Amino acid sequence: MGLLQEMFSYPFLVRAMIGGICISLCASLLGVSLVLKRYSMIGDGLSHVSFGALSIAVAFNWAPLAVSIPVVAAAAVLLLRITGNGKIKSDAAIAMISAGSLAIGIIVTSLTTGMTTDVSSYMFGSILAMSREDMYLSVVLSVIVLGMFVICYNKVFAVTFDESFAKATGVRVSAYNLLIAVLTAITIVLGMRMMGAMLISSLVIFPALTSMRIFKSFFGVVVSSGAVSVVCFFIGLVLSYVYSIPAGASVVVVNLVMFGVFCIVQILKQKVR
């Protein structure tokens, strides 16, 4: 308890904890749909798009979030359009946009400001980067994502597993896909301030994959993913504070350990049967 009291005596750590938990929750819930739809690497691709947009914003002294959120949302919509017409596979489209955006970001950075503290924190993450505005935006985003899953659960379920069936029952599939893509884009932009462009995709992928080791129903995986993501982020941030290691890397390692634990439990359950 003494350690937690000491941690939460620092305002930046309180902001990081609240914002980080909200972002982790959003990423994990959206991640269930994305992983099942085979869009799991979209988080990695969009984080590189965000890095490119943020590099341009820093170079021209523009507001980073005001530039990156529309750009990343547009990239998410573009990815859906490209892969939706079947001409380019989703993994190839993500790789193409990811590499191109990262290259643009690196060139802009090298020609202008160089690798400043701002650019470095976006690349590798920093708990100091979470501002009060970011925290408030994270809370609002988490309410929207939770609301979407609670109010539109059946429609999200239908869109995730069988788009043809969902269309036949009158669900506006394209609208839900667009909503998931835009919410994922905003989550990625907010999350990479703390996790970094290199590691933010782990918040989308790990909780869903971990939960799928044990739970087989969509509802079970969604609930478990949310719980796993929050617990892993909390433990990761505490370890980051205690051992003075980067928060992003710490959270990813805790997620990796949790994945291993769930795999062991899965094996033991199969042996018992």
Q: Taking Cα atoms only, what radius of gyration do you get, to the nearest Å?
A: 19 Å
> Strand share of the residues?
under 5%
The N- and C-terminal alpha carbons lie at a distance of 40 Å
Number of helical runs? 13
CATH class assignment = Mainly Alpha
Give the overall average pLDDT: 86
DSSP helix fraction: over 70%
- Poorly predicted runs are none
Based on the coordinates given, report the CATH architecture: Orthogonal Bundle
Q: Tally of extended strands?
A: 0
Give a summary of the structure in a few sentences.
With 273 residues, the chain is an all-alpha fold.
SSE inventory with pairings:
Elements: H1 2-7, H2 11-36, H3 42-59, H4 64-84, H5 90-111, H6 117-124, H7 132-151, H8 153-161, H9 163-168, H10 173-195, H11 201-212, H12 218-243, H13 247-272
Helix pairs in contact: 2-7, 2-10, 2-11, 2-12, 3-4, 3-5, 3-6, 3-10, 3-11, 4-5, 4-10, 6-10, 7-10, 11-12, 11-13, 12-13
Structural features, described:
- Helix content is 82%, strand content 0%.
- The radius of gyration is 19 Å and the shape is globular.
- It contains 13 helices and no strands.
- The protein has 273 residues and is mostly helical.
- The longest helix is centred in the first third of the chain and has 26 residues, at 11-36.
- The protein has a single domain (2-200), classed as Orthogonal Bundle (ABC transporter involved in vitamin B12 uptake, BtuC).
- The mean pLDDT is 86.
Annotation keywords:
single chain, 273 residues, mainly alpha, ABC transporter involved in vitamin B12 uptake, BtuC, 13 helices, 82% helix
